[in-house]
Design brief:
The protein is mainly alpha-helical. The chain has 23 helices and five strands.
């Protein structure tokens, strides 16, 4: 038996597929995403160096304050001999806020606040466009804010840095709005994935953070993945490989299902703390917006409030990752953990909510870890046989808290797992994140998120077509109206009398067997109406259009609306599927659009109430 023929056919089919695939296009896009990853990686390197240098020269050299670093990020600069001075810490954040505020409001007002929200807003409402100067101003202003004691995270600035370059590159290449949005998101994921040494989480976060519902921007994941891996490799080549936090081996184990009980309590505590965080942040934000003073001054006032808290609780200033590391290692008391959590809520609210520049993910890691440590320590005292390692609750608390305030459960679980290398805690993290997500869906730290893809201005046209294609004319059977049909041999003079007694505007014309042979509208007989010399000679079949544009029950509303638009008509006859001369009734453009709007509202309501 000759087997060469089938094998040959397989290879020929494979060769045809290869030829039909546009490798040039794939190569072009891969190169663009690699380039975004390279720039985002260098941006992360520069921003991280500025943060380290700023902390050394401002907080250490001026105030003698040198907060502990996390295990994966030792200090780049040697310590100074400056004695600790609380009074310098009191006014240092105000000075940083003043400089940061001047930079932002003088050159790029869009760079205020936490940059992730600005990138989300650009994706949905600004066609993916970010001004070219934004990344530069954001980098400098954020570094100044946080290295002078302002409480914030690195993800917001680096998200806007990466997103800004992606948007800039797409604009320079004259790409479409859709392509610019994708490149913006790829840059955002690359920046975050690199600076937190979590490339997978960075890619998923860029796709998930755009929406409040558990929805993903699927077309973003692969581009963001490519860019994130490249940026991560560059960053780690300079500052070393490994995770941000060190997690002892004994903490990483989960083998007792009874621990799920305390984890439920942790999820509830995190949801309530998240509520306090969001209300505090936006409460301060609204207060400063209403404050009748120059915008440039507002971050300085917020910095002064931050400095007052830092005067008594210096561990609530700046990044605070080192204290999260100490929480994991069970080195802090319950009292200190509580002060750290709620003090961090206040300092972040005043630092960023007043118009300062920084992110909200970093503080969330510290706050969530501290509250996780509180719950873990309490249950360890009450039931030491069940909760053996409070540090595990710190790690899970990090994930659960940010989920509660950001509505990003999937990427946050991956984030914390990559930052702590605690993949064995994936199960309790998923459990706590799911509960805290359900409990805290009504509040959110990312104000610019939209509900879901249906609600996004970026997808408005796409979803209109998708929804219309899913609805058939037969679904509107209750809206198909019976109308009066006009016999084809009716004299026009007789129709005039009929027309004075009806509100109907479209008139199907039928033969003696009640089969439709044409149709006319109230505008079609104007010439006859104003020509009394011929109105006695005309019958209605002379006026009717015989090339009838009609719909059938199996047609979708998208094609029906196209017929309305192309012919510029307001009513359409619906005819039998197998016999187009059998009239079932008329359907109006207004009824179709109203039905579509009701369906859209119903889908949005179902999406909003689904969880």
């Amino acid at each position: 038996m000759d087997t060469s023929s089938p094998i040959k056919k397989i290879f020929e089919a494979y060769a045809t597929t290869i030829k039909s695939y546009n490798f040039a296009r794939a190569g072009k896009w891969s190169a663009l995403f690699v380039l975004i990853g390279i720039i985002s990686g260098f941006g992360a390197i520069l921003f991280y160096f500025l943060c380290q240098a700023g902390s050394h020269y401002f907080m250490d050299l001026l105030a003698g304050y040198r907060p502990p670093p996390p295990a994966g990020e030792p200090h780049l600069f040697p310590p100074t001999n400056t004695p600790f001075n609380r009074w310098v810490l009191l006014f240092l954040p105000a000075l940083g806020g003043l400089v940061s505020g001047w930079l932002v409001y003088r050159y790029a007002p869009e760079a205020e606040g936490h940059g992730t929200d600005a990138a989300i807003d650009a994706y949905h409402r600004k066609k993916g466009y970010i001004r070219g100067r934004i990344p530069i101003i954001k980098t400098i202003a954020s570094a100044i804010t946080m290295t002078t004691g302002g409480s914030g995270g690195r993800e917001g600035p680096i998200a806007q840095i990466g997103a800004g370059f992606g948007s800039f590159l797409a604009t320079k290449l004259n790409l479409s709005e859709r392509e610019r949005r994708i490149m913006l998101a790829a840059g955002m994921g690359a920046g975050i994935g690199s600076i937190f040494r979590a490339p997978l989480a960075g890619a998923l976060f860029a796709a998930e953070v755009l929406y409040r519902d558990p929805d993903f921007e699927s077309e973003v994941i692969i581009p963001a993945g490519i860019s994130s891996v490249v940026a991560y490799c560059l960053f780690c080549l300079v500052f070393g490989w490994g995770s941000l936090f060190y997690t002892p081996p004994q903490i990483k184990e989960f083998s007792n299902p009874l621990e799920l009980g305390p984890y439920i309590v942790l999820a509830v505590v995190l949801a309530l703390t998240g509520f306090c965080y969001v209300r505090s942040f936006y409460g301060v934000n609204h207060f400063f917006k209403s404050l009748n003073i120059p915008k440039i001054i507002k971050p300085a006032v917020g910095g002064l409030c931050t400095g007052i808290i830092g005067f008594f609780l210096p561990f609530t200033l700046s990044f605070g990752y080192g204290y999260a590391q100490q929480s994991i290692l069970n080195e802090l008391s319950i009292a200190v953990l509580l002060l750290l959590a709620f003090g961090k809520i206040l300092t972040t609210s005043f630092s960023i909510g007043s118009g300062g520049s920084g992110g909200v993910f970093g503080p969330s890691v510290v706050i969530g870890g501290a509250m996780g440590g509180v719950v873990g320590k309490i249950f360890h005292m009450v039931m030491p046989g069940v909760v053996t390692e409070p540090g595990a609750f710190v790690v899970v608390g990090m994930a659960g808290f940010f989920t509660a305030v950001s509505n990003t459960p999937i990427s946050t679980i991956i984030f914390v797992s990559e930052m702590t290398k605690s993949y064995q805690l994936f199960l309790p993290s998923m459990f706590v994140c799911s509960i805290s997500y359900l409990a805290a869906r009504k509040w959110n730290i990312f104000d610019k998120q939209v509900q879901n893809r249906v609600s996004s201005p970026a997808h408005a046209g796409e979803f209109m077509v998708d929804i219309l294609q899913q609805i058939k004319v037969q679904d509107l059977i209750h809206l198909i109206r019976k109308v009066d049909c006009i016999p084809q041999n009716m004299p026009f003079i007789e129709f005039k009398k009929f027309f004075t007694q009806t509100k109907q505007h479209y008139f199907p014309v039928v033969d003696a067997n009640k089969r439709m042979v044409g149709i006319f509208s109230s505008t079609d007989f104007r010439k006859v109406l104003f020509a009394p010399d011929i109105e006695y000679l005309v019958v209605m079949k002379d006026i009717a259009v015989t090339d009838v544009v009609a719909a059938t029950p199996s047609e979708d509303l998208n094609s029906v609306l196209q017929k309305f638009t192309v012919k510029n008509i307001d009513s359409l006859p619906v005819v039998d599927e197998n016999d187009r001369t059998v009239l079932l009734g008329m359907i109006t453009r207004r009824d179709v659009i109203a039905f579509y709007n009701r369906q859209l509202q119903r889908l949005r309501g179902m999406a909003g109430a689904s969880l």
